[in-house]
């Protein structure tokens, strides 16, 4: 059978109609110009259209979701919940982002997530919890949502031109730029956003208190806000430190920090603490992790176990105590050491007319009142125009009533349909709109009863029009409407405070007790920077010290586990630590490499180490130029827990040796020119500043430098008495009988 001829496929021809200006060309321009053209538009987009809330209390992503649900009819009480996936899909008509990001945004608005004081979305299914980082929401195809009742206040009269509408991203529909909320949502629910070079963190306040404060502020611009607005109210409850000065700072400037504490109870039968409310700024996992770390570090010996018992009844963390532990004292300690007491940083950065602005509560409420006044004005004007239009039409009916037969005759005798309206206009002296309305009346309605019933509304309409015009002229009447609406909102949706207060007098000031175990240890430091902490028992059972090839033990000390350690480097810096920060070691291991353990700067090496418990004694720094500085060890004591001290000693000349003396002692100095001298440290006065250059103690010959400095015992000093000097500086004496300087060993 002959092979079938393969038909040659024609390659498709593409018609390129698009043109990209500058495509394929390389343009040289300044990097600053490139950033200005490319990065600045992105930064402004993030600030204005993504990260910061506006005066209606919503970011664009929140507003798009809620408006989509409103258009889907999910505000109606008769409407069943819709699958979250449906809402997410519909929202994508307004929000050009992925379904997952939209769903995550919606999750935070739900009642089930417990992130908002007054949730906007009624939910069914698993939506995770704000107080837990491990509890996540179920997939959108499983969960169901609808709008909460309070959303009626967000969309009230939105169809009456109360706010502006703009086209969506593909110009197929429109969306509101703001929501005409009848209460200050911007302060009722928390809002957090991170933009470019700025951020926003608005804490929530009690709805009833906010409404009361707004009303008081409208009546008296100088109203004392803290008298009606007691403080933030978080959905997670807990306790807030009532610090009037800090609260006034937040209310006045929009910036500040407020302290939150958990709410707990003590179960005597099972000897455990039960945490039922935690600070809004932390999570269950963060608390558990911190407690576990403290127990492992030996700083929380009163706790035997911690577990998360969160369930259908809500949040619960159980902490089992050891026998004899005072629960209240333990809680004070937990407040200091764990996120069970945390701070919430306020930063009321809000967009007003497209401009980010950090404002206090007074200024925010003033801006919201101005925004709400504009909404009420626009609604009133819309109603006025509608009533005027209706009145205008009914006035035409009143004229028709005078002679119904004439109207019928005009319509009947008009030959062309297009001439009916002009003939009615001429016959009754009415305008085109009125004539169109008359011409559209059904034949059955052209009777006296119908017309009389319709024109009965004329007097009421005239009163309504006059009243609406009066409202537009009088700002006080607009404010009265807003006040009435605020009272209704507070009455219908207000709820008791969830976050209670505690006061400075409730805070028990206790000194931090150092729980570090204390026991004898031997400390070893090698020349190359390896450190070992060995207990006496382990040292007795050990053999030789394990060291790297060429390394040797440069210093050994008997100390305790609580001893503080100061490590001096060749870069003029000191690093502080404690013996307890190092694990117990053995002679058979290398130990901890100090530059790595303490995070030395690159190229920085260990010079010496000293242990201390009371910061007594002196550090003697000997420099190659023959100078010496006597610095009290107390100069390295710090009130804060600083780990790194700059300018620990002078860097004007290279360091030849660093020696610690508990009290004045004899020091043997040797130079590279073969000279030596012995002097007592009492000849040098201590210096107040750590980086002092010191005083000249050895006069050096040409090309000579100070090579070494050693503390000598009384017996050794007696043998080398001929090298002792009575004053410094001194050139010393030739020391040929002492051998090479690098081989000296005392």
Taking all residues together, what is the mean pLDDT? 88
Given the structure, what is the number of helices?
Answer: 19
End-to-end distance:
109 Å
Q: Judging from the principal axes of the Cα atoms, what is the shape?
A: elongated
Biggest beta-sheet profile: 4 strands, mixed
Strand content: 15-25%
Q: Pairing-aware structural class of the strands and helices?
A: alpha+beta
Residues in helices, as a percent range: 25-40%
Strand order of the largest sheet: 14-9-8-17
Write down the Rg: 41 Å
DSSP E strands, number: 33
* Poorly predicted runs of 5 or more residues: none
What does this structure look like?
- The protein is α+β, with helices and mostly antiparallel strands and 746 residues long.
- It has 19 helices and 33 strands.
- The chain has a four-stranded mixed sheet.
- It is elongated, with a radius of gyration of 41 Å.
């Amino acid at each position: 059978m002959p092979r079938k001829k393969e038909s040659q496929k024609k390659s498709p021809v593409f018609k390129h109609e698009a043109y990209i200006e500058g495509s394929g060309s390389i343009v040289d321009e300044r990097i600053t110009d490139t950033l200005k053209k490319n990065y600045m538009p992105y930064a402004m987009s993030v600030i204005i259209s993504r990260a910061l809330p506006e005066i209606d209390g919503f970011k664009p992503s929140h507003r798009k979701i809620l408006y989509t649900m409103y258009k889907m009819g999910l505000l109606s009480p008769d409407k069943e919940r819709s699958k979250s996936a449906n809402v997410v899909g519909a929202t994508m008509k307004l929000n050009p982002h992925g379904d997952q990001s939209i769903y995550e945004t919606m999750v935070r608005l739900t009642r089930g997530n417990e992130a908002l004081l007054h949730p906007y979305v009624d939910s069914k299914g698993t939506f995770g919890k704000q107080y837990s980082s491990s509890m996540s929401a179920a997939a959108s195809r499983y969960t169901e949502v609808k709008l909460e009742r309070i959303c009626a206040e967000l969309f009230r009269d939105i169809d009456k031109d109360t706010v502006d509408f703009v086209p969506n991203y593909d110009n197929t529909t429109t969306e509101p730029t703001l929501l005409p909320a009848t209460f200050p949502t911007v302060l009722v629910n928390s809002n957090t956003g991170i933009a470019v070079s700025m951020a926003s963190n608005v804490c929530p306040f009690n709805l009833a208190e906010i409404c009361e404060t707004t009303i008081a502020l409208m009546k008296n611009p100088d109203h004392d806000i803290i008298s009606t607005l007691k403080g933030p109210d978080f959905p997670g409850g807990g306790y807030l430190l009532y610090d009037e000065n800090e609260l006034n700072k937040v209310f006045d400037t929009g910036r500040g920090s407020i302290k939150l504490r958990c709410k707990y109870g003590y179960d005597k039968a099972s000897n455990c603490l039960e945490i039922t409310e935690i600070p809004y700024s932390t999570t269950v996992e963060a608390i558990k992790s911190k407690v576990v770390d403290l127990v492992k570090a030996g700083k929380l010996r009163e706790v035997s176990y911690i577990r998360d018992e969160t369930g259908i009844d809500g949040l619960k963390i159980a902490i089992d105590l050891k026998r004899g532990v005072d629960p209240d004292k333990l809680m004070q300690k937990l407040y200091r050491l764990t996120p069970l007491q945390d701070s919430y940083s306020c930063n009321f950065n809000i967009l007003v007319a497209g401009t980010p602005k950090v404002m206090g509560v007074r200024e925010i409420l003033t801006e919201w009142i101005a925004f709400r006044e504009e909404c009420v004005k626009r609604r009133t004007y819309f109603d006025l125009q509608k009533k005027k239009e209706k009145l205008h039409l009914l006035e035409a009916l009143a004229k028709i009533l005078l002679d119904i037969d004439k109207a019928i005759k005009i319509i009947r005798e008009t030959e062309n349909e297009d001439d009916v309206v002009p003939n009615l206009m001429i016959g009754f002296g009415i305008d085109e709109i009125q004539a169109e309305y008359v011409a559209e009346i059904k034949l059955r309605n052209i009777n006296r009863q119908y017309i009389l019933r319709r024109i009965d509304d004329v007097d009421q309409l005239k009163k309504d029009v006059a009243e609406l015009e009066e409202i537009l002229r009088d700002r006080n009447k607009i404010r009265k409407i807003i006040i009435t609406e605020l009272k209704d909102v507070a009455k219908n949706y207000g709820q008791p405070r969830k976050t209670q207060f505690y006061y400075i007098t409730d805070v028990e000031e206790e000194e931090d007790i150092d729980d570090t175990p204390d026991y004898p240890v031997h400390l070893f430091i090698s020349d190359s920077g390896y450190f070992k902490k060995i207990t006496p028992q382990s040292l007795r059972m050990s053999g030789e010290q394990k060291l790297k090839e060429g390394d040797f033990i440069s210093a050994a000390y008997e100390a305790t586990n609580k001893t503080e350690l100061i490590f001096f480097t060749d870069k003029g810096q000191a690093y502080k630590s404690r013996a307890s920060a190092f694990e117990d070691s053995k002679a058979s291991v290398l130990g901890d490499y100090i530059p790595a353990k303490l995070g030395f700067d690159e190229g920085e090496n260990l010079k010496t180490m000293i242990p201390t418990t009371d910061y007594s004694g002196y550090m003697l720094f000997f420099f190659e130029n023959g100078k010496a500085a006597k610095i009290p060890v107390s100069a390295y004591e710090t009130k804060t827990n600083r780990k790194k001290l700059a300018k620990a000693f002078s860097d004007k000349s290279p360091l030849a040796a660093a020696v610690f003396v508990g009290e004045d002692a004899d020091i043997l100095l040797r130079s590279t020119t073969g000279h030596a001298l012995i002097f007592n440290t009492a000849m040098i006065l201590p210096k107040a500043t750590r980086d002092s250059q010191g005083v000249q103690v050895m006069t050096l010959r040409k090309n000579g430098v100070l090579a070494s400095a050693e503390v000598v015992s009384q017996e050794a000093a007696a043998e080398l008495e001929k090298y002792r000097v009575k004053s410094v500086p001194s050139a010393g004496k030739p020391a040929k009988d002492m051998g090479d300087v690098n081989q000296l060993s005392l």
